Amino acid sequence: MESKYWDLAAKQFAGKATPSEQEELRRWLDANPSYEAEYQAQQRLWQLTAPAHAIEVDTDAAWQKVQAGMHPQVQQTKVISLYRAVWRIAASVVLLIGLAWLIQYYYFPYYGMEVAAAGKGQRTVLLPDSSQVWLNKGSKLVYNADFKGTTREVQLEGEAFFEVQPDTQRPFVIKTEDAQIKVLGTSFNLRSYPEEAREELVVATGKVAFNAEEGTTVTIVTSGYAASLNRQSNTITKQRVSDENAWAWKSGRLQFEDQPLKEVLPDIERYYGVKLHLQNPGLGNCRFTGSFQKAELKEVLQVLAATLQLDYKEVNNHTYTFTGADCR
User: DSSP assignment of 211-278, as one string?
Assistant: First the structure.
C-alpha cells in the first residue's frame, strides 16, 4: 500500500478522515482486490495496538461530592501525545509491511511473475526476448513478463532445454535451487529436479558459466561438455559427452555408438522412466551401436536383447532384468 494511503487509512481508523479523504481511500481500495486485503489486515493490527480510551470525568457528580463535604478523588485524563501517536502509527505500518511480506513470501512467492508449468506432459515457452524453452514433464519456469533490467533472469525447477537469443548487453541468468547459470546466447539442457542428488548441465552450442549458489568458483562449459553439481558436497565436475541423449526427452531420439551396455542403460532408464538391471555385472561390458526415434520401450528392449544375444524379463511395470553370457 502506498504511503499516502497508509496515512489516509490511519486517519480513517482514528475517526479523523474527512468525507473527501474517505471517498478517495474507498476509490483506491476498489481499484485492486489486494489493496482491500491489506487494508483489512492494517485495520486488525490497528485495533490490537489502539491506545486506551481516555477516562471521562463526571463534573456533576464531583460537584455533588464537594457539596456533601466529601474529598473527591481526582481522576487524571490519559492523554496520548501526538509524538506517541505518530510512533504508534509508524510501528503499525512497519508491522503490517512485514506481515504483508511474509504472506507474499509463503503464499504468493511468484507474485507479479509469469509461471509456466509442464505438468504431466511437455511444454514450449517463448520468452519476452524470443528465447525458447522446452520444459520436460514435472518442470516449472518462472520469469518476468517484460525482462527489464540489466539481466534476463528466470528460475527453473525440473528439466528444460534452452535456446537463448544472443544479447551481449543483458546476460541470460537461470537460477535453480542450488546453482546459477549465466549465458549470452547458446543452447543447452539443464536438469534440476529438487528430489535428485545432482543438477546436470549439457551444452549443445556456445558457452555457459555454471556455478553453485553457495560457491564462488565458476565452471565454464562449452559445446560437447557436461557439468554436474553434487548438491551434498557442493562440488561441480565436468566431463566430455559424445551424444545428444541428454535431451532425448525433447528430440525423441536415442543414439548409441559402440558404447558399453552399462552406459547405454542409464540413458534408456531416464528416457522411459524405468529401472533396468543386469543379472550378471559382466554384461555391462557388452557394446552396442544403434539409434531409436520415438520407439516404444518394448521395441528398444527387444533390439538390445537380439543384438547382444541376451534375454530380459519384466519384474514389474517399471523394472526389467537382463540375463546372458559375459562380454569380455
Answer: EETT----EEEETTEEEEEETTTTEEEEEE--SSGGGHHHH-EEEEEEEEHHHHHHHHHHHHT-EEEE
